[in-house]
Amino acid sequence: MPSFASFLVSALLVGAGLASALPPKIGTTVNERGSFEVKQVRNPHHKPSGPVSVYKTYLKFGVPIPEELRATVFNITNGRIGKRASGSAPATPIDSFDDAYITPVSIGTPPQVLNLDFDSGSSDLWVFSTQLPASEVNGQTLYNAGASSSSSLKSGYSWSISYGDGSSSSGNVYADKVAVGPLTVTSQAVEAAKTVSSSFTADPDIDGLLGLGFDNINTVSPTKQKTWFTNVKPQLTSPLFTADLKHQAPGTYTFGAIDTSKYTGTITYTSVSTSQGYWTFTSSGYAVGTAAFVSTSISGIADTGTTLLYLPTTIVRAYYNKVSGSSNSNTYGGYIFPCSATLPTFTFGIGSARIVIPAAYLNYGQVTDGSSTCFGGLQSSSGIGINIFGDVALKAAFVVFNGATTPTLGWATKPL
Question: What is residue 144's three-state secondary structure?
Fold first, then answer.
């Protein structure tokens, strides 16, 4: 078994205490070939920005960018993003302002190591490639299909991802080896970019995305391709991955097993709808601070590729009504408050279980460098059309993405 230590990836040997929703491998010892842990690495150019996070989320889900927000993002980044192209279309944002952590992935023979963003809200594995014009490359590692003896062009296949401002990333498709940790998919669809949106060009540390959503939203034409997770399932002890994301620290993804040392109590599972291609589930309600729990169904997606928590306006208002000096700012694209304000916690329900997001997670930092005004980690989903449990929520829990025949999501508390 080759070592992947140079990729900051290590095999994980754990006992898998799996719930009844999962295959019957309860209490077995997981061998190296059936499970592994992937440790994130910090994006060295990451700079948190609430307005840029909202901007990026609007782009991802095809929402038009409000002019005031575009202008604010332009100013925050000293004109590097938000600039109008040809006098009309706004440029897309620098991902390094939003993606704090990335994960090394090995592609091809011999291996080419690229740093990818693991995204449960999409289903394409696309990468910067040597086919890109020099003007669209800014220090990224490029996938060179011609230098890989295991690559083969899928003739007639293409891919294209469109964003909310009308820009897009697109290219052709190869079949090649893709390894994450000690397991390899020998014929994975690798979507090689021939053009990329400026949001990705501007960030030298992110070389592409690895989608962990469901296959039905893959963008390859004429035939949608399976995700790396779908293809690797037969090699896993159990067809799942877990996300143990951290606040202001690298987190881990574990494929094939559940590490019982990473959570407390029991895991509560909830059903998943795959019709939209996302990990869509229903939360049982919410609570603000120490107030009583409000039982109400909140349908949303668990999305590792979105930074903030986006919920219905009524819930967001209820939260910020408890934050002194808070207001909904068109300029900054969401709720802001004095950085000196005391924030309450926010709780959401998974059945009878409760996940508590600490107050510190709900302060996403200053709206601009040196400002006394801060941006909220909880924002309204009204303009997006979908509720999103992004990293602000996911970091407060240990989350199991169970990709069995009947998918489920498992949630547990953990030491924070």
Answer: coil
